[in-house]
Design brief:
elongated, four-stranded parallel sheet, alpha/beta, Rossmann fold, DNA-binding, 434 Repressor (Amino-terminal Domain), 3 domains, 13 helices, 325 residues, transcription regulation (chains A, B), HTH_LacI (chains A, B), homodimer
Chain lengths: 325, 325
DNA sequence: CTGAAAGCGCTTACAG
DNA sequence: CTGAAAGCGCTTACAG
């Protein structure tokens, strides 16, 4: 069966397509008699009419879509929250958020052949090439772009580094002279983990502490060997890439018979539910997801309205002190 | 600046729009001279041409989009994996998967005004109304539909119930005569949690055990009171909605001074990294995400090709026995 | 081997 | 208050 179009509605309702459009879109400033309105709606309903998104977008010259591009690594619970929030905020402007899991190796350009979003939100920095291609295609780009393709710059990386620095300062503030860093063994997390580590090491340097080499700790298995090695090297505190890694360190300490936090202090990132009920409860870094989401939404709205983008919320992450450090 | 169109390319390259389309789409069966091909591509590149997805879709009568609709509740780590996988598999057919976090209250119909997917994958059952509206709009619907709007039927619910049943059988098999069920306190999880609970209670009945009333256990805080109540009522084993809830029960047992599993056995769902390194390591139910994703992809492909949909993988979830039960 | 033309389904000035 | 017509940008039969 062929698709039901607005012409079908018009014919069946005995009006023009113009009127159908006016009624179905509640176009302001036009007056259509109540009876006609009702008839058009009834017919549309009866025929199961669904307007063509493609035709709408083509004619209007824009869509109501915002695409959020997720990076090539496991994002963790924080990002899901963030996307939910973003969806809610943009919904109030009639926009729909669609998320693309950018795991495959295809070029983003291919995606834009399939969908024309009004704006794109990057949860990880875009390459300059991707960013300029999108801009030229008339898509608003929100989220950071690596200037010159070099990591380590931009708001996004800055905020990640801030997290690492927070961990270092907390641990140093508790009097630990020798820190370790437990990073992830997931290769996809490369640059994300790198930013947190970099912030951690910079802070160590600033504090006059030795900058540790990172140790890769797989999640879901007790990091017993790593804990023993640290213990042997005089390390009394370790910062982890995230809570899952921190939990693996905690389990390693348990296996190795090291008391936490007296013999080994541990601090994670994410403030996950599991971290809150660990033994001992995990000290961790919490990111203000709500504020981040609101900021992202504000950036999208600003870009669409041609206003200047608001500055990043500065005082974002904070240490949640619990039992482990 | 106005959008660059294929007409601009044609003009600049001194060819017709037909030729531009042939070259840029690598249309098979047409022969365009190598020189022309090169020139067209060069011009398109120089001008930063990006074809209009809307026009393409309108003309072709279909898009290359598959929208996955996430339900109104926190999905957990399993679903992220599943979506990544689905994205990969469908990419090999030139399809793009876009995820919609269906948290807002808007009708799905509104979404279809903004985007016309080829198919929609529901990670939770669709209402019959939504399903039929999508079908009438020419969208292939994959994933279960509630027949008559009643929960509890369909492949999806069946598989969720299987999880609850698995927990009950495992606990009963270990000789526990009196079981408890710890459900989530998240109101959004309503029917999802309900399906697991229903499966659990049915299995209890079949096994001749009393069917417990569920107790809501918030995640991230030790469920000490709940544990004490169970203990006082002679309960020696509890099944949890998921690992986060199970971890909260574990923490409650710790606080209440109950040894796990000897005084209280606990079994979760998800096989999360945190569960694997808990103290004691959590016994849990693992779902075969890869197989589920492959099945979902197969369903989409079958729907698009007009073939019959393959049956659900039957032997899905399994208990991973660790230290807690 | 290449081009002129039709048409996908909508919205919106414009004319009555 | 309502309708005829143009045009968004593409692809693809069709004609040369």
């Amino acid at each position: 069966m062929p698709r039901v179009t607005s012409a079908d509605i018009a014919r069946a309702a005995g009006v023009s397509r113009t009127t159908v459009s006016y009624v179905l879109n509640d176009t302001p400033g036009v007056s259509v008699s109540g009876a006609t309105r009702e008839r058009v709606r009834a017919v549309a309903d009866r025929l199961g009419y669904a307007p063509s998104a493609a035709a709408r977008a083509l004619r209007r010259g824009r869509s109501d879509l915002v695409v959020a591009v997720l990076p090539d690594w496991p994002v963790g619970p924080v990002v899901d929250d963030l996307l939910d929030h973003l969806t809610d905020v943009l919904a109030s402007r009639g926009l729909f958020v669609l998320v693309h899991h950018h795991r495959d190796s295809r070029d983003l350009a291919d995606l834009w052949r399939a969908v024309s979003p009004l704006a794109v939100v990057g949860l990880a920095p875009f390459t300059p090439a991707d960013a300029s291609a999108m801009t030229r295609a008339g898509i608003q780009v929100v989220g950071s772009v690596e200037p010159g393709g070099e990591p380590g710059t931009g708001d996004f990386d800055a905020s990640q580094r801030g997290i690492g620095a927070l961990q270092a300062r907390h641990l140093a503030g508790a009097g630990h002279p020798r820190l370790a860093y437990a990073t992830t063994d997931d290769p996809r997390l490369g640059r994300f983990a790198a930013a947190r580590l970099a912030g951690f090491r910079e802070a160590c340097a600033t504090l006059g502490l030795p900058s540790p080499r990172p140790v890769a700790v797989p999640v879901g298995v007790p990091a017993t060997a790593a804990v023993r090695a640290w213990s042997g090297a005089g390390v009394t505190a370790v910062a982890a890439y995230n809570d899952d890694v921190a939990l693996a360190v905690l389990a390693g300490a348990r296996e190795a018979g090291l008391a936490v936090p007296s013999a080994l202090a541990v601090v994670g990132v994410d403030d996950s539910p599991a971290a809150r009920v660990a033994a001992p409860p995990l000290t961790t870094v919490a990111q203000p997801v709500d504020r981040q989401a609101e900021h992202l939404a504000a950036e999208v709205l600003a870009a669409l309205d041609g206003r200047d983008t608001p500055p990043w919320p500065s005082d974002g992450a904070r240490v949640v002190v619990r039992g482990s450090a």
